[in-house]
Fold this protein.
Amino acid sequence: MSNDIICNGNAANLPSLNVVKTPIKYEMDPAGNFDWLLHIYYARQDFSSCEALIDQLLDTQLNPEYLYFVRGQIRRNQEKYYEALKYFQLAINLNSKNIENFKEIGKTLYLMGRYEQALEVYREAEELSNRPDNEIFHFIGEILLLSDNPNSRQEAKQYFQKAVEHGKMIDSFKRLAELHRQEKDYSKAVEVLEACLQISPESTEILTEISVLYLKINETQKAFDKLLNVTDINAGCPLGLLAFGAILQSRGDVDGALAKYKQIHGCDNVETSELWNNVGLCFFKKKKNFVAISCLRKSVWLAPLNYNALYNMSLIYITAKQYASGFHTLAAAISLRKESAECYMLLGICLQKLKDNENALLAFERSSGLVKPNMKSPLVFLNSAIFLYQMGKTEAAAVNFNNFVEESKEFVLSTELKFQATKLKAMLQQSNCESLVESLGRLDEENENEKDNLPLEVTAKVMVTPQKLNN
């Protein structure tokens, strides 16, 4: 190809434009600091390049503390814990005031299951640190939770509170909220998780957990608003849909709840005991008892130790007049919660229907004895009073009836329960029971705040989170 061009009518000859590029060679200065390059390799999880660079620099650097530190982290990622401890110890030998080395040793010991030694290391790091360190506080709290000492739980709570105040570790917020929830301080748990939302405002897990806690304190509208945020972020969030369905179910919108549960069932690999429990209760509300029992059997099959599912299934068995099946299911539920007054009450009903009055009496007496002062279980006393009256034990029936009247003061009674209570009172008065209360007039009075109270009845347990055995 010619390089000539025509310029002003004359041919002009141009020089060649070929450019020869000389490759640039980078040479590593033996005295230079390449910690930045090592950090980049480690952040990329390029451990082979890390190892090669460490081997190259170990002989040249006068203070290879960071090299040992990174190699220790690599060994821990490879689950070579003893080698990791060796390298972290070499780093401490070079700089005994760097708390990061102590934190990594503590974390390694924690992963090895050597909790007491890990706690000692973190305590030492806490003393050496010249400023509050949220990571140290968090791991001390985690280790204290694993202790058998009952006082350690409160100390762990204090450390998680410190971690929340001095850092932004989401796990610390979750742990602290979980401890408040286990103590049934739901308002405090909500406060902690609301603060966590400032760090991660689009976390569907945290938003759903807040909505569940709002449900526990009967703030259904706030729970509904949080779940709307969940569906805006992720319309197919299974736990959000489950909580959404539970709210609709509690409001009596069974068809709307079933629609939400159907969306969960359409998700891949999402099939939980809680889902089938709630679906079963929807069919129970529709008076389709046999379909409800099938759903609850599925729930129990997925989680045999789910107390709520067993309790609900026994309730439906009794409604369907399958008393023998109800007895066996209640026996399984009681084995999980031996202090459940409601379970013993239902067991007494089953035994009464099965003509075993002697054991039914023991079950009713057990249920009445399990009611604690802070528990409001008036229905336990009413059923016990009715059974005792039928057995001819009028004085004992009157005592239970008086307990029922006292316990039911904070409830709005359904029409059926008012009728049964008034009828039982009349029968006891005909028996001239001296211990019977004089009046049941309050049962016929209308409560001005009726809409803010729950009707007194044996209620099924709608579930929005997996049931824990220690609750």
